[in-house]
């Protein structure tokens, strides 16, 4: 797994459309699908940040963004910085950028998501 693998980005919090940090994605994606991440639930870190944690039988609904190739690297770099993950790293103070599998009406996709770092 490489931090620069060009995968779509699954969001479940403030990066979603209509949320305060969507400006990090706005104008930089070709399409967006409603998606479900199974085997996880939403929780909060000790710092009050929304995070997903493994939980058998649970699910998290969110959005899957297919970033434009010409904007991919810069958009992910900005999102990583927002989530306090250093360039080229997968784990930061509050989140871990992990490859997960989500379900959509268009099929199943492997994507990046910011999840619990533990």
What's the main sheet like? 3 strands, antiparallel
Tell me the name of the CATH homologous superfamily.
Answer: Gamma-glutamyl cyclotransferase-like
* Structure class: mainly beta
Q: What's the CATH architecture?
A: Roll
Residue-averaged pLDDT: 92
- Rounded Rg: 13 Å
> What are the segments in which pLDDT stays under 50 over at least 5 consecutive residues?
none
The number of domains is 1
CATH topology heading: Hypothetical upf0131 protein ytfp
Shape: globular
Helix content: under 10%
What is the percentage of strand-forming residues?
over 45%
Count, helices: 1
Describe the strand arrangement of the main beta sheet, using strand numbers: 1-3-2
What does this structure look like?
With 118 residues, this protein is mainly β. It has a single domain (9-115), classed as Gamma-glutamyl cyclotransferase-like (Hypothetical upf0131 protein ytfp), CATH 3.10.490. 9% of the residues lie in helices and 47% in strands. The chain is built from one helix and five strands. It has a three-stranded antiparallel beta sheet with strand order 1-3-2, with no helix packed on it. A two-stranded antiparallel sheet has the order 4-5. A hairpin with a 2-residue loop joins β4 and β5 (107-115). The longest helix has 11 residues, at 72-82. It is globular and about 35 Å long. The model has no long low-confidence stretch (mean pLDDT 92).
């Amino acid at each position: 797994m490489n931090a620069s693998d060009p995968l779509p980005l699954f969001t479940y919090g403030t990066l979603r459309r209509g949320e305060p940090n969507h400006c990090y994605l706005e104008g930089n994606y070709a399409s967006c699908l409603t998606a479900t991440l199974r085997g996880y639930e939403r929780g909060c870190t000790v710092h009050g940040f929304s995070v997903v944690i493994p939980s058998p039988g649970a699910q998290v609904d969110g959005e899957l963004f297919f970033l434009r190739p010409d904007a991919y690297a810069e958009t992910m770099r900005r999102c990583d910085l927002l989530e306090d993950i250093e360039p080229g790293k997968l784990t930061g103070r509050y989140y871990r950028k992990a490859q997960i599998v989500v379900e959509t009406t268009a099929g199943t996709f492997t994507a990046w998501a910011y999840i619990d770092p533990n």
